[in-house]
Design goal:
Blueprint lengths: L1 H19 L8 H15 L3 H14 L10 H5 L15 H6 L5 H96 L3 H31 L3 H11 L4 E7 L6 H21 L4 E8 L3 E8 L12 H12 L3 E5 L4 E8 L6
Parallel strand pairs: 1-2
Antiparallel strand pairs: 2-3, 3-5, 4-5
Length: 356
């Protein structure tokens, strides 16, 4: 846009000098020729096109002196370019026609200098603008990178907090089981011994009531301990540990579950993945395997695949596949086996279904 503005200014200046020349008259052909050549040089911004068009225009100045007045307009596209030496050729027709009108030729030389100034200023502004855009884009890219890194740090922090919470629940469950549970068990044994040696029915009745209360407390603590321990099972951490220990071939792990499946389902999934990876080690020649666990609105999907060659599969005789199938059926799920381009195990388990 700035180059176009400079060309409009130069065209207006060249027209003023052209109209002031008493010899050239009011011919329109030089004006149209200069505008067309300058427009083509602006449109075809290449070395070969610019050299060809500029050479044609400068050569045409010799038989058509009226074109001399528009040399600054055409020469504008030659300045500060690898081919800018051609701009010196524009001085040749000016010197040839110098005696025609000294004042007009001086004005043309001044216009050429004005074109040089405009071109230098515009190039400097364009370079400054390009640097600004580059800096702006770099700043935006850096901001996006920092935002992504910050998000990753927040996710890692959430994972650490979740893991610490699960570990603390596990510790509390162990403390309750080892200390309070032990004391209640000892109290129940002592109560049973007291009931065994007490013959008076009036004295036995309070002891029986106390024993029932202690038994209820023991059951309540036992249930609380189981709940705490069950909630402390981190499915992602358990599966990640399994995949980290798998060294038979390259293994990709993809986990996309947001909810917290019930404990029996967690243990079932861990056992299924463990069995599937063991089958890869025992029966496959794979070089690449993957474990994918995703959550959908109505079901969980587990996919274990490898790129090994499948010779034959007999689900009736394979104990490992039978174990997997029985675990899937316990949750009213579906298991499918695909043997195209390797071995793939597809398992879908509906949500909210009690284990059989």
């Amino acid at each position: 846009m700035m180059n176009l503005t400079d060309k409009v200014i130069l065209l207006a200046s060249c027209l003023v000098v052209y109209l002031l020349d008493p010899v050239s008259g009011m011919e329109i052909v030089p004006v149209l020729t200069a505008v067309i050549i300058s427009s083509l040089m602006f449109y075809y911004d290449s070395k070969r096109s610019s050299l060809l068009l500029a050479s044609v225009f400068i050569a045409a100045c010799l038989p058509m002196p009226g074109l001399l007045f528009f040399l600054p307009l055409v020469g504008y596209d030659l300045f500060f370019r690898p081919w800018q030496k051609l701009g010196l050729a524009a001085l040749v027709p000016i010197f040839i026609y110098w005696e025609r009108s000294d004042i007009m030729m001086v004005m043309l030389v001044l216009l050429l200098g004005f074109a040089v100034i405009l071109k230098r200023r515009t190039d400097a502004q364009l370079k400054l603008l390009a640097s600004f855009y580059e800096l702006r884009d770099s700043s935006r890219e850096m901001a996006l990178i920092l935002k992504r890194q910050n998000q990753e740090l927040m996710e890692k922090q959430d994972d650490r907090v979740s893991l610490a919470t699960l570990n603390e629940r596990n510790r509390i469950a162990r403390e309750i089981h080892d200390n309070v549970g032990h004391l209640l068990s000892s109290s129940l044994l002592q109560m049973g011994a007291m009931l065994a040696v007490t013959k008076d029915e009036k004295a036995r009745q309070p002891l029986l009531t106390l024993k029932a209360t202690l038994s209820e407390a023991m059951d309540s603590i036992r249930q609380s301990v189981h709940n705490l321990y069950d909630e402390s099972v981190d499915l992602y951490a358990q599966l990640q540990a399994l995949t980290d220990k798998f060294t038979f071939c390259t293994l990709e792990f993809d986990y996309e579950i947001q909810s917290n499946p019930e404990t029996r389902l967690k243990y079932a999934m861990i056992s299924i993945v463990k069995e599937a990876l063991s089958n890869i080690v025992r029966h496959s020649d794979a070089t690449l395997a993957s474990v994918t666990l995703r959550e959908h609105p109505a079901f969980y999907q587990l996919v274990v695949r490898d790129n090994g060659q499948v010779k034959s599969i007999n689900t009736d005789s394979g104990i490992g596949l039978k174990n997997i199938e029985s675990r899937v059926e316990a949750f009213q799920g579906i298991m499918r086996i695909h043997t195209k381009d390797g071995f793939a195990l597809f398992i879908s388990i509906p949500k909210g279904q009690p284990a059989l």
